[in-house]
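INTERNAL AUDIT FORM
Audit reference: QA-55
Scope: verify that the stored structure record matches its stored sequence.
Auditor: D.O.
Record contents follow.
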Amino acid sequence: MSKRPRWTAEAEEYLAENWGTLAIPTLARNLGRSEDAVVIRARRLGLGPFLDSGDYVSFNQLLVAVTGGNSGYGYKIKSWVENRGFPLHYKRVGSQRWRIVYLKEFWEWAEKNRAFIDFSRMEPLALGEEPEWVAEQRRKDFETFALQRKDSWTSEEDSRLIMLLKQQRYGYAELSQMLRRSAGAIQRRCGDLGIKERPVKADAHGDSATTVSVRPAALPARGRHSAGGEGPPARQITKRLYDQKGKSRYRG
């Protein structure tokens, strides 16, 4: 009967940094452990209560929620923390020390440094209740991003554009929000692909033929929250973050 491998300091550090960011099956695969072993170790390291506290999250979790991924980790340390005074703290778990962010402090910092954050990439209520100014800033960032976007269309975007056009329900405004592309870019792409279908025309009042509620492509729809407008409990936030894909620097 083979002995279970010992947990090394490196493995524990990896687990602490990625707990709540990568899905448990992914953590188990990268660490070469069973899912139960990963969960048990996380509890022994005190990660469960930390993620359920709701007062603070790991720096990795914050990056996933705010930017849609944890790429550019080193750049954010330099640009946000060193150059702009980002309120980063450290929490010791066993023999390891890892980075955490208090949500209240983050929002205070974000309001002063909103010009350096693209809130259009952040799902509403991804970190729970938001300050009032965030919704308006998200709208402005979306409009700016869509107009300035110059990157090439991906095959996934092309497929989604074709699918949406075939439904004959959406005008340029709705498609622009859902695809995070300007109306002009959508029009040009339709021509490039030779798509016969076109966005529905606006009526005499300037509204689309069908009124729909949409979210940007990077902000997938979620379930309803409480009528009071407060965000979901931290454990729900953590579950959402499990489903986000992050880049791993560790391979088991």
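Auditor finding: record pair retrieved intact. The chain has a mean pLDDT of 76.
Action required: none
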